[in-house]
Amino acid sequence: MHLYSRLFKIIFLLFVPSFLIASLGGEMDFTEEEKQWLSNHKEINFTGDPSWLPFEAFVESGEYIGIVADILKIVEQKTDIKFNKIPTKSWSESVSLLKNASVDVLTETTDSTLGNAFLFSNHFFSSPIVVIMRNGSRYLDTFSQLKNKKIALIKDYGYVGKIKEKYPKYEFYDVENIQEGVEAISVGKYDALLTTMANGSYAIRDMQLSNIHVVGRTEFSTEIGFAISDEYKPLVNILNKVFKNIDEQTKQKILAKWVTQDYVEKIDYTLIWQIVFVAFLILSGTLFWSMRLKKEIARRIVLEAENKKMLAQQAKYAALGEMMDAVAHQWKQPLNAVTMLNELLVIEYKDGNLDDTYLKEYQMDMDTQVEHLLTTLNEFRTFFRPDKEVESFNLLESFNSVLVLLKDEFLKNTINISIECDENISLNVIKNEFKHLLLNILNNAKDAFVENNISDRQITIVVKKESDIVKIEISDNAGGIPEFVLPDIFKANITSKAEGKGTGIGLYMSKQIADKMSAELSAQNISNGALFKFYIPL
Questions:
Q1: What does the alpha-carbon distance between residue 43 and residue 38 come to, in Å, rounded to a whole number?
Q2: Quick one: CATH architecture of 3-124+224-258?
Q3: Residue 405's pLDDT is what?
Q4: Dist CA 296 CA 283 (whole Å)
Q5: pLDDT of residue 21
Q6: Residues with Cβ < 8 Å from 206, sequence gap 6 or more?
Q7: Can you give the pTM of this predicted structure?
């Protein structure tokens, strides 16, 4: 279907009244007087236009069909009235039946001149009056373009009067029905036909006339309701209530059943230029926003890199503080031992007990303490060496290296640690980063033992090597990670420690290190503590 045909169809549907579109509503709210009137009027004589589809028509068998027919079926269902449909040969005959009281209700437009002699219900359908002309005719912007044209109007239709009244000097010609009208335009008898959009488009399609089409819309429209004799005055309000009660689904089904049309309109270049202009503005705005977005993304990438760098530096400072504390504890015992050995040496010298045996024992004890100091110092020095290269190292030796730094802290806090690891397993990553990760997890366990005041303190490290992965699982019985913290445990500045006792950087950096190694680091609670799983691909 042509683009503008579809647009015209959309415009048409916008003029359809709100109630001609879905399933029946609820129960009717008739007054007692209305109910009594309905019980006394079980049958009502009705007629309509015999050839006015899609609105209404009588077929050869006498059956009444169309939009109005479907509306009447709903009215009959809601009121228990039976409408006796009286067939006619022409619209003029239908009007005559109402005037001579042969029927009591007639389909009619609400602007009809019959309004002076009969009652009218509210409308149940609205449609604009359009202009139909032969192919090749220019699109009509205004009614004045029909001046000096032969214009056909369907005889006695309600909207005809107001058109003739407003344009008395135009050439109007009456036709009996819509079929005669569109055929007259098709053969060139008249220049234009004025009719409702639904009626005209239906007739063009039904009669398969390919040389005529809708070329414009007038300022006129028509609303379709029922003309009712004065004797049936209560019926007016009853019908209005029924119309109001019909819901949208039923109305839409009725329209979809009867209204199908194609429309041809002129290309509205004003609208096209407006669309192009709006599209240009949208495109320009999108490009401008895209450029700003790119700049913002670039700025945020730089900020994120700087933030990661700052967090990494904070993590190093935090680890440095912990390591300094650990070294202080590590050195405290051997320094005390050295001091005590020197004091004993002085005492033995004064007492005259120095001999070769004593001096050898003294030297061995002193060497042991100095070796302990040097080992701690060397581990401390190598731990913070800025290694960037991946290297292969023995996993068990790396565990022991970290435990050297934590030995005195763990002894002080009575923390037992056991390691199940094959001595032949090696890793191929940045060694100090791995040790940093391990140190963070063990320090967190130590702090949890102290904060939760656990008496029997145990950390277990289990290492398993599979075909292409090394699984390291570190568990403790320190009471576990608070549930509200657990989902965010590896995010920056998230900590379960009391205020002033933790920064939340350690585990964040551990996760960054794991990601850098393409490894998986996770945490979960177990029965009496926490379990950290660190899976490293080989």
A1: 9
A2: 3-Layer(aba) Sandwich (3.40)
A3: 74
A4: 19
A5: 36
A6: 53
A7: 0.42
